[in-house]
Amino acid sequence: MVKVDGSGSQSSLIQARDLDKTYRRGGEEIDVLQGLNLDVEAGEFVAFMGPSGSGKSTLLNLLGGLDVPTRGRITVAGDEITHMSSGRLTEWRARHVGFIFQMYNLIPVLTAFQNVELPLLLTKLSKAERRSHVETALGVVGLSDRMNHYPRQLSGGQEQRVTIARAIVSDPTFLLCDEPTGDLDRKSADDVMTIIEELVGRHHKTVLMVTHDPVVAARASSILHLDKGVLVEGKHTTPLTGAGGVA
Amino acid sequence: MKFARIILANLLRKKVRLLLTIGSFAVALFLFAFLAVVNDAFQRGADVAGADRLVIINRTSIINPLPLSYRDKILRIPGVKVITHNNWFGAVYKDEKNFFPQFVIDPENQRQVIPELLVPDDQWNAFVKDRQGAIVGARTAERFGWKIGDRVPLMVTIWGTGNWEFNIDGIYHGKRPQDDETQFWLQWDYFQEHVSAGIKGQVGWYVLRLDSPDDAVRVSKAIDAEFANSPFETKTETESAFLANWVKQFGNIKFLIITIGTIVFLTLLLVTGNTMAISVRERTPEFAVFKAIGYSDRAVLFFVLAESLIIALIGGILGLLSSVVAVPVLAKGLNGLLPALVLSPSTLVLGLILAILVGLISGMLPGLTAMHMRVVTALRRV
Predict the structure, then answer these.
(1) B94 with B216, same domain?
(2) Are B224 and B263 found together in one domain?
């Protein structure tokens, strides 16, 4: 169960303690996160909500090792990432984090297959093994028939599904979704959320998601509100269950 | 090379820009090769000059003659091995545009003094016996379609009027690629028969060989001292110095060529550097994604440098290959106005190295920018 009061156990998959993040803008210091605590167990699906500027994306960036906190520490699967060097953090991200961005962020000159294959090029997998993993990941998101399409030949919803396939293809420890449906119509958003739910329910993925949309947030097992740099617990829903693994 | 597909896809992203950038490299490298060839042609004096050869001209100017009687006096100076003399003939074949260098030579010692220009013995013997004989360089013979046995009229421009006729008795070849094969040699005796009395017995310059190159300074001083305060004072210098001074008459060619070449490469650097910078700036969010999903800073730098290097190599090779085709055509078009235009392998290698350097430098700054960009900041620029 997700906790925000620092009372989580050492066995939590993701553990953030006394997290502060301060930005300096025009000589003024802006405290975005203040003494934030968070414990997330493996297999949880947590949604972060809050007004613009409340620090949701900042928190996601810190948990994903894209940014470093001003103070505090973050531990993921036993690895404390807050003091890792930039190089080690990059390697850590490749092994542990799958990113799903609002704007999809696919490479336009690569096909869906090639986009999904990108994280695997950093591994020692053979070409045949890479192909197998990519085909499985694209199968999970229902795009086996769009492998050789370029992003411009796909709809927004399909592009986001390719992004999801890219995020899961290397079987990361957890997924970070920053407004994954923010640029999609309701039908496409529903499709994307169904896939994310399946990743949690059937494939036991841990998902942390930032969203403005209460309908989307409602599909998470826990909703946390971020206000003035502090997390506040929201509702808990029934955890999703299932079996299987990805790639 | 599993990253080749990514690099190739990025290169082909903007095809027109890619073609224009490759074209910039090709034009710059073609120009480099062309300038290097012209520079080589002008500077070749140092290459073809014999280390043991001295040239003696009239101290006033090379157009002022020296008496033939100096020959025996010079020969008596210790260190002088053999001597010959030449005059500039300066005629044209049929038309003024058919220019090529012609020299009046002394057959007695010509081959001993200038052994690198090879004439078969039978042809040389025929020439020595024929007062109207001529030996012609292979390139000039090829240019006008002359062959041994042909009778050739040359229209004189300095030593009178009308045509002088010559028998082509031989064709010489240079030992080395850089040797000049455009000259035309005629007999001293035939020349003496036809020039006016006031010119008889006067040579244009002397060329001598030394016993040892180490004697050059001493012998030069001795010769000039021998004829000091005479009506025909001499200026003696090594052949390489003589040829270098000859080139200087055209201006500082080397400086000019180096300046133009430097400007060309600096411009190329700015153009390609700007192109790479624009290309990287356009892809800032994509590089951020690469970094987010685990590509290292060095991998990002590698992608940018690989792109600029491939552009430089393709453009460079195209430019240099164009010059390989164009230089012989150009050389033919110059009709012997310049010494042989030779595109040497070292010029091609240097050109390729320069292209690679420009490619690396132009990709380095945008590559470092991409390498050091913060993922979080870059992702916000979507």
Answers:
(1) yes
(2) no
- Other beta carbons within 10 angstroms of residue A98's beta carbon come to 27
pLDDT tens, B260-318?
889 988 999 998 999 999 999 999 999 999 999 999 999 999 999 999 999 999 999 99
pLDDT the model gives residue A241: 43
User: CB distance A94–B293 less than 8 Å?
Assistant: yes
- The beta-carbon neighbor of A122 closest among B9, B294, B379 is B294
Q: How many angstroms separate the CA of residue B299 from the nearest CA in chain A?
A: 10
pLDDT digits (tens, 9 = 90+) for B232-262: 999 999 988 887 777 776 667 778 888 988 9
Q: Can you give the length of chain A in residues? A: 247
Query: Does residue B112 lie within any of the structural domains?
Result: yes
Give the residue-averaged pLDDT of B3-28.
Answer: 93
Sheet with A71-76, edge to edge strand ranges: A28-40, A14-25, A71-76, A79-80
Report yes or no: B272 and B362 within 8 Å, Cβ to Cβ. Answer: yes
> What is the structure's pLDDT at A247?
38
pLDDT in tens, B201-240: 999 999 999 999 889 999 999 999 999 999 999 999 998 8
Q: A interface mutation test: which of B12, B13, B289, B307 has the most A CBs within 10 A?
A: B289
* Shared-domain flag, residues B307 and B193: no
Q: B295: which DSSP letter?
A: -
Asked whether B280 and B366 are in contact (CB, 8 A), the reply is: yes
- Indicate whether B154 and B69 sit together in one domain: yes
Interface test with B, best of A25, A106, A121 (most B CBs within 10 A): A121
What type of residue sits at position B341?
Answer: L
β-strand pairing of B133-137 with B151-155: unpaired
Residue B244 lies in a domain: no
Residue A66 and residue B377: Cα distance in Å, rounded?
10
E strand or H helix that includes residue B237: strand B234-238
Q: How sure is the predictor about B59, in pLDDT bands with cuts at 50, 70 and 90?
A: very high
Residues B112 and B223 placed together within one structural domain of the fold: yes
Strands A71-76 and B133-137: unpaired
Question: Predicted ipTM?
Answer: 0.89
- Strand B202-203 to B117-118 pairing: unpaired
Q: How far is the C-alpha of B26 from the C-alpha of B319, rounded, in Å?
A: 4
Q: Does residue B30 lie within any of the structural domains?
A: yes
Residue B261 lies in a domain: yes
Q: Give me the sign of the Cα torsion angle B140, B145, B151, B156.
A: negative
Q: Domains of chain A by range and CATH?
A: 45-66+87-236 (3.40.50.300)
A110: left (phi over 0), alpha (psi -120 to 50) or beta: beta
